[in-house]
TrEMBL record:
Protein name, as recorded: Universal stress protein
Gene: usp-4
UspA domain sequence ranges: 2-148
CDD domains membership: USP-like (cd00293)
Family (UniProt): Belongs to the universal stress protein A family.
InterPro entries (UniProt xref): Rossmann-like_a/b/a_fold, Universal_stress_UspA, USP_A, UspA
A matching Pfam family: Usp
Length: 158
């Protein structure tokens, strides 16, 4: 049985990864788990809210981030199901750092393949922002497919 972990953040780059995965032929009994990670770093800051701060605002921001992540996995699942109704698809939404959460979920799920989109950052941006796809590819215990948006790749050839 093939187990694929698809990580999505709802960006156009993630949507390209979903589309690429949807075009792939699958063997019988292929399972796909779709993961979205939302940032809950505001939760740890709640203990240090300055006097007069609005803790409910922080809770609202976390709640919205979680809802957006839930929509992202539902949309990805719908696209994959439409392309291949025989796929076994599950979804999960977790708080935390995308790099760590993807690697942890991959281990717990027993993934044979991780699929992520590439944001196409240049070297300087990768240095400043870090690259989720790069970190996952370096530290994963299984194969990793990094899907690039076609027009980004073509621009680099010019």
């Amino acid at each position: 049985m093939m187990k694929i972990l698809l990580a999505t953040d709802g960006s156009e780059y993630s949507k390209v990864a979903v589309e690429e995965l949807a075009r792939m032929p699958f063997q019988l009994n292929t399972e796909v788990r779709i993961l979205s990670v939302f940032d809950n770093s505001l939760a740890s800051a709640m203990g240090s809210v300055p006097m007069g701060g609005l803790p409910s605002t922080y809770n609202d921001a976390i709640l919205i981030a979680k809802e957006v992540s839930e929509k992202n996995v539902k949309d990805a699942a719908k696209s994959l199901k439409k392309a291949n109704s025989k796929l076994s698809i599950t979804t999960t939404v977790v708080p935390g750092s995308p790099k760590n959460a993807i690697l942890d979920e991959s281990e717990n799920y027993g993934a044979n393949l991780i699929v992520v989109g590439s944001h196409g950052y240049g070297a300087f941006s990768r240095f400043l922002l870090g690259s989720v796809s790069q970190a996952v590819s370096l530290h994963a215990n299984c194969s990793v497919l990094i899907v690039r948006k076609q027009d980004v790749t073509e621009k680099r050839k010019l």
